[in-house]
Design a protein that fits this description.
This protein has about 550 residues and is α/β, with parallel strands linked by helices. The protein contains 20 helices and 16 strands. It has three domains: about 120 residues, Phosphohistidine domain (Glucose Oxidase, domain 1, 3-Layer(bba) Sandwich); about 110 residues, Enzyme I, Chain A, domain 2; about 290 residues, Phosphoenolpyruvate-binding domains (TIM Barrel, Alpha-Beta Barrel). Strand 9, helix 9 and strand 10 form a beta-alpha-beta unit.
Length: about 550
């Protein structure tokens, strides 16, 4: 028996074979070829494969969300056969260039041409051309979409996964995740908790590619990866798996129940998501709304700034799917650990305190305006609220509100429908925001506390650093007192306050949250039913603030 010990970051037990994530070099090189006919044949095969993939995706979208959802993929399939687009590739092939270079150049040429047009609809098609071009390149270069070339679900193993990589994974093929690095606050951990699968980080070099294909048990509760368990260990693991299944079945009895304490205190239980794909998990787990939609997934998954139309489609899809339930969308939180090459951000010695989140938006008003227009347009199709991250000053909130007002005036003048009553909120995740919460509260409709960053900045502890261990303590009295200060300021101003950081799912802190007066908890979808069960067992009037004392 071999046992690798790491840090458990998402609970549960699974058994499966390890599959090591391989990063493929997607850089296109310009090469001359002698056999142009063979190169043309390669391109035809890539086109046929791309069309087949898009038709399959269109059919799946139609089954799950109707004809309108399938239109995007059908449009992309049409682009693959567009005579002008593919004709430009053929010309480059005839000149003796390799197929990858021909596709890349034709894609850049047509995307630039569309982006320069006056018609907003045609400008939006530039992003479609980029997507189609990338699909053709992937098929030419043998790059597996979704990153996992397996015909069955696996335990995904990696050194660590960047945010842009987690966004593009084929999640239907993942049983669990095991990584050499990472931490409980890494995006790998957040992905696993959203999916409700076990995950272990920080396994170090003991986890290596020689284990590829080997079967193992992963235990998210204890942080263990176990190969060839002995008879006693195997029996214990099977007992725990059975208990896990029984607990899941018990939690299903919470579906449809109210989020209310024994003494009548209501608390909203919402969900954190990272993409439209996660909405199914919200609905399956009976989340009452979405308290944090991380909109940066659109930017992380794109090769260039996502257009207003691309963003509008994504926000509209989520808003419509939630059928009138609240969807709080956080404006882009790029920077720090979420780097996007096309943003062209300078390298920073301390990126967690550098140009990130709302600071980028206020420095790049056109990027901000594009997102706000998409958000307000989507508000006509559901109950959307907008939330600004990384706020530290009153002037930042006022600038954000001015930008919102300007966008509403534009849309009204253009005759585009939107909800003029969209709620505006801010994230409380800097000590500065806590200290001036009484000044910020009158400017917004709600607060949402990002406890991951609030803990990081309050304790001067890098939340991405696994070595800090016990020093990164979200239970620290200073963090809990900050929550109390923010809650007091919110309620004094007559607005509500929620928690959207990972701490919201910490059942041991629920009594403290009730005593502080937290109104909403936004958690990973799979944490909804256990949290609801704990709320329904609680008596709010007996909860104390004891944990705020050292």
């Amino acid at each position: 028996m071999i046992v690798l010990q790491g840090q458990g970051v998402s609970k549960g037990i699974e058994y499966g074979s390890l599959y090591f994530y391989h990063r493929t070099n997607t850089q296109v090189t310009q090469q001359t070829v002698e056999d142009t006919a063979a190169e043309a044949q390669r391109l035809e095969e890539a086109k046929a494969k791309s069309i087949a993939q898009l038709e399959q995706m269109a059919e799946k979208a139609r089954e799950e969300a109707g004809d309108s959802a399938a239109e995007l993929f059908e449009t992309h399939a049409m682009f693959v056969e567009d005579e002008d687009y593919t004709g430009a590739m053929d010309e480059l092939l005839e000149e003796g260039w390799n197929a990858e270079y021909a596709v890349q150049q034709a894609g850049e040429q047509f995307a630039a041409m569309l982006a320069a047009m006056d018609d907003p609809y045609m400008r939006a098609r530039a992003a479609d051309i980029r997507d189609v071009t990338q699909r053709l390149l992937n098929n030419l270069m043998g790059i597996v979409e979704g990153g996992i070339d397996a015909d069955h679900p696996v335990i995904l193993a990696a050194d660590d996964l960047a945010p842009s990589e987690t966004i593009q994974l084929d999640k239907s093929k993942i049983l669990a995740i095991a990584t050499q690095g990472g931490s409980g606050n890494s995006h790998t951990a957040i992905l696993a908790r959203t999916m409700g699968i076990p995950a272990v980080c920080g396994l170090g070099d003991a986890l290596n590619e020689s284990m590829n294909g080997h079967a193992a048990y992963i235990v998210g509760d204890t942080g263990e990866l176990i190969f060839d368990p002995d008879a006693d260990t195997l029996a214990a693991l099977q007992v725990r798996q059975k208990a896990q299944q029984e607990q899941r079945e018990l939690m299903r009895t919470m579906v449809g129940q109210e989020d209310v304490t024994l003494d009548g205190r209501h608390i909203k239980v919402y969900c954190n998501i990272g993409s439209p794909e996660d909405v199914d998990a919200v609905l399956t787990n009976d989340g009452r709304g979405i308290g944090l939609f991380r909109s940066e997934f659109l930017y992380l998954a794109a090769e260039d700034y996502p257009s207003e139309e691309d963003q509008f489609r994504a926000y509209k899809e989520v808003a419509a799917a939630m059928q009138g339930k609240t969807v709080i969308i956080r404006t882009l939180d790029i920077g720090a650990d979420k780097q996007v090459e096309y943003f062209g951000l300078n390298r920073e010695e301390n990126p967690a305190m550098g140009l990130r989140a709302i600071r980028i938006c206020l420095n790049r008003p056109e990027v901000f305006r594009t997102q706000l227009r998409a958000l307000y347009r989507a508000s006509a199709y559901g109950k959307i609220a907008i939330m600004f991250p990384m706020i530290a000053s009153v002037w930042e909130v006022k600038e954000c509100r001015r930008a919102c007002q300007k966008v509403m005036e534009e849309l009204k003048a253009e005759g585009i429908p939107f909800d003029p009553e969209v709620e505006i909120g801010i994230m409380i995740e800097t000590p500065a925001a806590v200290f001036i919460a009484d000044e910020l509260a009158p400017l917004v409709d709600f607060f949402s506390v990002g406890t991951n960053d609030l803990t990081q900045y309050t304790l001067a502890c890098d939340r991405q650093c696994n070595d800090l261990g016990k020093f990164f303590d979200p239970h620290h009295p200073a963090v809990l007192r900050a929550l109390k200060m923010a809650a007091d300021a919110a309620h004094k101003a007559g607005i509500w306050i929620g928690i959207c950081g990972e701490l919201g799912a910490d059942l041991s802190l629920l009594p403290t949250f009730l005593a502080i007066g937290i109104d909403e908890l936004s958690v990973s979808p799979t944490a909804v039913l256990p949290l609801r069960a704990e709320i329904r067992r609680s008596i709010a009037s007996t909860c104390t603030l004891d944990m705020l004392n050292s």
